[in-house]
Amino acid sequence: MEGECELCGKYGKLKEVIIEGSKLLVCEKCATLGKEVKERDVKLSSSKRKVIEKERIVDIVHGFGKIIKDAREKLSLTQDELAKKLMVKESLIAKIEREEIKPDENLARKLEKLLNVKIIEEYVVEIEKNEKEEDKKDVALTIGDLMKDIFSKKRNH
To answer: Which residue has the higher pLDDT, 27 or 132?
Structure first.
């Protein structure tokens, strides 16, 4: 999906991520700031009228930089040699090892395979919500809707 990043405004390929509890569509660079939502499965139970959402969350483990550095050194590789094997810049490997940035899922999987380490955590979160009749419509609230609501409340007071 392409569009405008909801964090930085950059136009390009977007990913759905959860950042501080909010689901956002962001560019690849901003996606490193949160946990990527890989799939979304919505089921509607007709008898209970509840919506169950399943989201697969992919995250990088705490302390990933030390894990990567230790594994690289165990294989007697320099940062430059590792970077060349992964076809990335040496400065990127250095930043990842210092945990200044998180590797994206693709690079993390390459690091796992090459260094024989585990740095990716995957889990499924299920959210159950009651469905109201007016919530059935998948309509987003706009700033204009909010302004109409505020002005209508002011007129009534």
So the answer is: 27
Q: Which CATH class is domain 62-118?
A: mainly alpha
Structure-token pair, residue 28: 């690849």
- Could you tell me where the DSSP H helices lie in 1-157? 28-31, 64-74, 79-86, 90-97, 105-115, 143-156
Rounded to the nearest 5°, which phi and psi values hold at 68?
-65, -45
Residue 23 half-sphere exposure toward CB, CA atoms < 13 A: 8
- pTM score, two decimals? 0.51
Q: What is the pLDDT of residues 31-77, one digit of tens each?
A: 888 888 765 544 444 445 567 777 888 889 999 999 999 999 999 99
**Cα Rg of the chain (Å, integer):** 21
Q: Give domain limits for the chain.
A: 1-59+122-157, 62-118
